[in-house]
């Protein structure tokens, strides 16, 4: 091979390296989804979201009105509007549903029977609400690390999810602050449901 051809080959390789390093442009933007997070006071909504945002647990204060957090994942950003779960706040939840693309419902799987009954009623109301009934739901049975925690199967049966949520997009997962890998996996499943709904909207 002549010196000229060798020089041309090296120049072409330099050009390819330049294009690979400098001309591929910025990475594609991650999609963003607006979600509403509901559940009774003490269910652990704020702590779970704060942990996902890598915030210090020492600074966690129970939400009394509402707060918004941008929760980053590798393939999406979830803009989560968390609503306080006190008795005097829950009656106003529906005012904040508009614009939501998905729902996170957190329940305390180790709570008293009375609180579990209240949580069941609130979840039933959300699943049937006109602004939420077609949206993907992630239902988190929190506090699985507590001795009194009910299993996912017990929660599913008590909340009557199979007959009530038939035909809807929903995921029921156990969780606790001690198992962040499982929590992140639950949110990954929710993101998959959100993406599926996006693709269906495009096809229509």
TrEMBL record:
The keyword Zinc does not apply. Coiled coil: none annotated. GO terms for molecular function: GTP binding; GTPase activity; metal ion binding. GTP binds at residues 39-46, 85, 142-145. Keywords: GTP-binding, Magnesium, Metal-binding, Nucleotide-binding. It comes from the Eukaryota. Mg(2+) binds at residues 46, 63. SMART domains: ARF, SAR. Belongs to the small GTPase superfamily. Arf family. This is ADP-ribosylation factor-like protein 15. It comes from Lynx canadensis (Canada lynx).
